[in-house]
Amino acid sequence: MSSTTSKSWFWTGFRHGIPFVLVAGPFGTLFGVLATETGLNLTETMIFAITVFAGAAQFTALQLMQEHAPVLVVLASALAVNMRMAMYSASLTPYLGAAPFWQRAIAAYFTVDQSYACSVAMYEARPEMNVPERMAYFMGVVTPLAPMWYLFTLMGAVLGKRIPESVAIDFALPIAFLAMIAPMLRTPAHVVAAVVACVTSILAAGMPFNLGLIVAGIIAMMAGAQTELVIERRKARR
Amino acid sequence: MTTGTLDPTTLWIVIIGMAFGSFALRFVFIGLVGNRPLPPWLLRHLRYTAVAILPALVTPLVIWPSATDGQPDPARLAAATVTITVGYFTKNVIAGMVSGAATLLVLIYLLG
């Protein structure tokens, strides 16, 4: 391994990470604004964003705390939204599993949709990359992203109190979620999971302690997994 | 929207629980499991968690918005439809968000 190539892989990753700042910006700002509106102070908002570092899960927790859901339901739902990180972690393991322990721990913290998607695509395209080069690329992708996420969250938290009531900020969260969901609907199985989730969440809306969300989530997840199986079996038969 | 009604103990349990939980989820395989393969059924379910939980969370918010005391609202329903449609066809998160927000603001202005 030479550190020069690792360095150039870092900068390649850095360049690939820059466009994602455009996504992190509005979401970070929105989280800061909504956290302030929910009653979190500046310190709480920033500790939340920095320690958790997962937009969709942070928004989920915020919404459920606003609805005064029980702590266990808040945690279970927010962590369920983050379950896909476990999948990313599993899928990165063959590429980065041989790196030193401390590097893997840092990479784990920075595993988000963007760093995962960029890195796996690059590792597949360039099988000759060695482990330090892969790690350098991964860290390159998150280097422009993470500080901007923190910074925009801070900006939103500071701005939050100054947004007038007349702006329909109540609906910013649903719109943000829908915008996040839409590009995830890549396959028929994803669409089935999402539709089942919508229908079940309406039917289960009356359940106490916001448990309807958990029930709908589990049923929808199983529906997605089953649809995938059925589609695969049909393909195999042909 | 209710402001300042959060119980600080609840908030800190949630923040600490999510901080450790999120890290654990990201660390479990890369840090602990190593190169052992995972059962396919587990991966198959993990693939659909986000796309299951997020729509389940958002659907009641769209149909029964808190701002209208739970009454279905044409402006918010239209904004949601535009967001998901634009987001689906462009595969672009920001395009979906901006068009949805624009729809909502225009309709609220027009419908009063």
If you had to describe this structure to a student in words, what would you say it looks like?
- The complex is a heterodimer of chains A (238) and B (112).
- With 238 residues, chain A is an all-alpha fold.
- Chain A folds into two domains: 3-169, no CATH class; 185-238.
- Helix content of chain A is 78%, strand content 0%.
- With 112 residues, chain B is an all-alpha fold.
- Chain B has a domain at 55-111.
- The mean pLDDT of chain B is 88.
- In chain B, 75% of the residues lie in helices and 0% in strands.
- Chains A and B meet through α2, α3, α4, α5 and α6 of A and α1, α2, α3, α4 and α5 of B.
Topology:
The complex is a heterodimer of chains A (238) and B (112).
Chain A: H1 3-17, H2 21-38, H3 42-52, H4 55-66, H5 71-81, H6 83-96, H7 101-109, H8 113-125, H9 131-160, H10 172-181, H11 188-203, H12 211-237
Chain B: H1 8-33, H2 40-46, H3 49-63, H4 74-90, H5 93-111
Helix pairs in contact in B: 4-5
User: What's the number of helices of chain B?
Assistant: 5
Q: Helix- and strand-based class of chain A?
A: mainly alpha
What is the residue-mean pLDDT of chain A, rounded to a whole number?
90
Low-confidence stretches of chain A: none
Radius of gyration of chain B: 19 Å
State the share of residues found in helices of chain B, binned by percent.
over 70%
* Largest β-sheet summary of chain B: none
> How far from one another are the termini of chain B?
20 Å
Radius of gyration of chain A: 20 Å
Count the E strands of chain B: 0
Number of domains of chain A: 2
Structural class of chain B: mainly alpha
